[in-house]
């Protein structure tokens, strides 16, 4: 008796998944992940190490920036909310960027990190870069769209998420012991 032959699925281009193209496709989001994770980590660390940024007022402060964008933002209510506590908001923004950057780079809770990055980008687009004209001068919209594939696909390769999933597959649901 002949056994049924197993075949790999065929991708849209006609190549078998798992071939060279399949291997490249598995890693297609890695450059985007490195760029977004590195950029957000750098942006967050830069904010945390800049003594002027978290201040309520003064040159280079978040408080001054919020005052400048309040009347032109798509959501001035969001700007107003941040103006009630610019110092706390500055640290929350910077800390969020650092966490998103690290999570994206190491691939830990990758979808959640990407969702956080998308929310930060959406918030910045609707407040700080909303008045950019033409719209493509405001880079936060491009960042928002760049996060979308990572929100949908997660961090499937070269990531702690993948390592933990592999461990769970090999050892069941128990991660340690």
Cα radius of gyration in angstroms:
21 Å
Q: Outline, from the CA principal axes?
A: elongated
Helix content: 55-70%
**Strands, total number:** 0
Order of helices and strands: HHHHHHHH
Q: What is the mean predicted local confidence, pLDDT?
A: 87
Separation of termini? 44 Å
Structural class from helices and strands? Answer: mainly alpha
* Approximate strand percentage: under 5%
- Identify low-pLDDT runs: 1-15
- Please give the count of helices: 8
Sketch the major β-sheet. none
Q: What does it look like?
A:
- The protein is an all-alpha fold.
- The chain is built from eight helices and no strands.
- 25% of the residues are buried.
- The N terminus is likely disordered.
Map the helices and strands.
Layout: H1 20-26, H2 30-49, H3 62-69, H4 76-83, H5 86-106, H6 110-127, H7 139-153, H8 160-171
Identify the notable features of this structure and list them briefly:
disordered N terminus; 8 helices; 62% helix; 177 residues; mainly alpha; single chain
Can you give me a brief rundown of this structure?
By secondary structure, this protein is an all-alpha fold. The protein has eight helices and no strands.
């Amino acid at each position: 008796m002949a056994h049924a032959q197993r075949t790999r699925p065929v991708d849209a281009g006609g190549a078998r998944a798992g071939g060279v193209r399949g291997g490249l496709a598995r890693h297609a989001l890695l450059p985007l992940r490195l760029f977004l994770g590195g950029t957000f980590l750098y942006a967050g660390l830069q904010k945390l190490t800049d003594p002027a940024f978290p201040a309520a007022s003064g040159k280079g402060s978040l408080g001054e920036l919020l005052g400048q964008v309040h009347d032109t933002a798509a959501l001035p209510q969001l700007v107003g909310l941040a103006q009630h506590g610019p110092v706390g908001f500055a640290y929350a923004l910077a800390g969020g960027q650092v966490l998103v950057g690290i999570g994206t780079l190491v691939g830990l809770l990758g979808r959640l990190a990407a969702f956080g990055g998308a929310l930060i980008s959406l918030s910045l687009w609707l407040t700080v870069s909303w008045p950019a004209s033409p719209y493509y001068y405001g880079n936060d919209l491009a960042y928002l769209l760049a996060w979308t594939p990572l929100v949908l696909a997660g961090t499937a390769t070269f990531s702690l998420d993948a390592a933990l999933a592999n461990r769970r597959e090999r050892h069941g649901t128990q991660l340690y012991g």
